[in-house]
Amino acid sequence: MHEESPPTTRGQLPSGPPRPGPDRPTPGGIARRALWPFASGMRTLGHDPAPLFMAAGIPLPSEGEDPDARIATPAVLTLLDAAASATGDPNLALHIAQSAEVASYDLHAYAFLSSRNLGDGFDRLCRYQRLIHDTTRVVRERRGHRQVIRHLLPGGGAIPRHSAEFLIGSWVRFARLATQTQWAPGEVRFAHPAPPDAAEHARFFLSPVRFGTGENAIVADDAALAIPCTAAESGLSAMLDRVADEAMRKMPESPDSVADRVRRALLPELRGGEPTPAAAAAHMRVSVRTLQRQLAAEGTTFRDLLDQLRHELAIRHLESSRHAIGEIAFLLGFAEVSTFHRAFKRWAGKSPSEYRRGA
After folding, report:
1. CA–CA separation, 213 vs 347, rounded Å?
2. Distance CA 34, CA 108 (A)
């Protein structure tokens, strides 16, 4: 397979240094800079992105625009889904991740490629996530002898299939660019169920790909993250850190999202049965209607948060505990084991016992 060359030589940027944000960026939503790779990849693949942006009510990215201006989260999350449908390419997100101009990723690209090694590069993606979205997170955490890098919506939720495949595909592409190898993670994990044909995923990632895991993440061992970046440049990296830190310093502080607060309220309620919006609203001292409105503004609902939390906890129990499936159903607040089976089949595309056998 063809290996790309990094767009930079030591100390040089392909199209000028990234621009800091305005003095007072508008909080909320997804930054305009996050849409640049999408538009670039669509054009590279021979598709016109303009009708899709127009249908979503989003201005098409243009030269000189404010990279920190925010677009409503729900509109952005549906954009790739609409694009996959319009082009008839079920794997469009992966193809965009492979095809977008490297420079369209702006600060995140330069920061990753100039890092000392892949671990440092992924740490910068975690640190700079606020420049993409105020309340989503990219986290790097240790699980046993491996490390996991994952993307989280407020409340621990997961972005939809095409957005997730674009994101994880971009991470792997940049790891390959940075190391000039066909780098492959130890495992790729997607929250959504497996598509009818996952051959393209296997071809691109060169790794085991697991679906229905409740999270969008890559898993790698320490050695894989210690691989040096071929274009590492400490001076350039330090300069980019200053640019990013200055941009984030000018952004309003982001308090805990409403979704994260609801998630914390849900955790102790699960064993008591089916948690309700009324109970969560009472815990947070707001009306149910206010809670619903606040969650909608963050692009989620109470039902979605409860569903995601149960999915995540079910996966943890099935992968790392010896609880019987009936016990897991009880721990997640399901009154009937059959109800848990149906929910899990919807989440993962297979039964809890089938998932446990493959874990």
Report:
1. 8
2. 10
DSSP letters spanning 182-246: ----SEEE-SSPPPS--HHHHHHH-S-EE-SSSSEEEEEEHHHHTPBPTT--HHHHHHHHHHHHH
Q: What does the pLDDT read at residue 80?
A: 86
The predicted-structure confidence for 76-120, as pLDDT tens digits, reads as follows 878 888 999 999 999 999 999 999 999 999 999 999 999 999 999
Residue positions counted in the chain: 359
Structure tokens at 282: 């009472």
H runs (alpha helix) in the chain: 36-44, 50-56, 73-87, 92-99, 107-113, 118-127, 161-179, 199-205, 222-225, 234-249, 258-266, 277-284, 288-297, 302-320, 325-331, 337-348, 352-358
Reference 198, options 184, 187, 186, 211; nearest CA is: 211
The tokens for 299 are: 């692009």
Distance between CA 319 and CA 317 in Å, rounded? 6
**Confidence (pTM):** 0.79
Instruction: Please tell me the number of Cα atoms within 13 Å of 193 on its side-chain side.
Output: 11
Are 108 and 177 contacting, i.e. CB atoms less than 8 angstroms apart? no
Segment 248-284, tens digit of pLDDT? 888 766 667 888 889 888 888 887 678 899 999 998 9
Please, what is the average pLDDT of the chain?
Answer: 87
**Which tokens sit at 190?**
């997607």
Write down all domains in the chain, each with its CATH number in brackets. Answer: 30-249 (3.90.1520), 258-358 (1.10.10.60)
